[in-house]
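Milestone 3.1: sequence recovery, worked example.
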């Protein structure tokens, strides 16, 4: 399994953190789920607007092939960030996650 980790900071002077989360899940996440190799996602945020998106992929190729969609999301949400998000790819060496229920 492989991952893309995106670190970001939401401009909380212009928008609320929960509004960004709602937009992300409504506008971007459905298309991401349809990409080949998509395995799951974690969206982590603080009340101050710091955030991390960890998307999980079945292969290194799937991470690479999904890069265009990730870049599109950065462009679509660019006015919501304090600075451009940083992205890195990782091989998931170990994971132990609880059974989670997807948010609506």
């Amino acid at each position: 399994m492989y991952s893309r980790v995106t670190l970001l900071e939401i401009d909380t002077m212009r928008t609320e953190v929960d509004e960004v989360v709602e937009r992300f899940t409504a506008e971007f996440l459905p298309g991401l789920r349809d990409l080949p190799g998509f395995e799951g996602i974690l969206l982590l945020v603080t009340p101050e607007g710091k955030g991390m998106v960890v998307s999980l992929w079945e292969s290194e190729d799937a991470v690479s092939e999904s890069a265009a969609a990730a870049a599109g999301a950065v462009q679509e949400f660019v006015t919501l960030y304090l600075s451009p998000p940083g992205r890195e790819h990782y091989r998931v060496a170990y994971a132990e996650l609880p059974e989670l229920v997807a948010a609506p």
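The helical segments are 17-33, 60-65, 67-76. The chain has a mean pLDDT of 86.
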